[in-house]
Amino acid sequence: MATTTQDQLKRAVARAAVDEIVPLLDRQTVIGVGTGSTANLFIDELAAYRHDFDGAVASSKASADRLKQHGIPVYDLNGVGTLPVYVDGADEIDTELSMIKGGGAALTREKIVAACAQTFICIADGSKYVERLGGFPLPIEVIPMARSFVAREIVKLGGDPMYREGVVTDNGNQIIDIYNFVIDDPRSMEATLDQITGIVTHGIFARRGADVLLLGRDDGVARITR
Ligand SMILES: O=C[C@H](O)[C@H](O)[C@H](O)COP(=O)(O)O
User: Fold this and answer.
1) Does 3 count as an annotated binding residue?
2) Residue of the nearest CA to atom 3 in ligand 1?
3) How much is the ipTM here?
4) Is 35 among the annotated ligand-binding positions?
5) Ligand 1, atom 12, residue with closest C-alpha
6) pLDDT in tens, 160-206
């Protein structure tokens, strides 16, 4: 039997997310849209329904551009109230639906848009589903002048910080990736990192984790809820 490629799994969950949200849409609905290769496929699938909803708030300039290319209006979050749904990928997601995000450096806007959403639907291929977060290096967005200070604080917490050279976020900041970081308790680590001066956002999404995970596996898309 032919194995399903990662790209096919991403496409399957993107379609499943569209199937899940289309019944909720009306001409006034504005939805939150994430960033990355899986979110891109979701945007492409969503395009067929562009006349069934009002528009979207994007979590990155790249996603905003892709939405606009499909003729989907993109709104500033400040002009929109609560979003009924936010759809995005993840770099890792655990059984409690806590996530590591930010592999594409979009974590800050993602966390903000997710905070405004009633329901967070995570779309991910099976490789992202883990027992414990931390195999994927944890991205942190830092104010540039605080980079070395934040790195020293991370070392005190037992992680190995690595500057992601050449990357500037949509907010004009820099990214540090933390390798070899044990995240036994995502909520507690999220709170600890929230306290470090100079960190704009880190990639642990635990307090605002996903509500629904659409997980692409060889045998189909599993729907897992928190
Ligand atoms: O900054 C990027 C985001 O957090 C993405 O959602 C995450 O990196 C997953 O991206 P992909 O769907 O390309 O694996």
Assistant:
1) no
2) 102
3) 0.97
4) yes
5) 38
6) 999 999 999 999 999 999 999 989 999 999 999 999 999 999 999 99
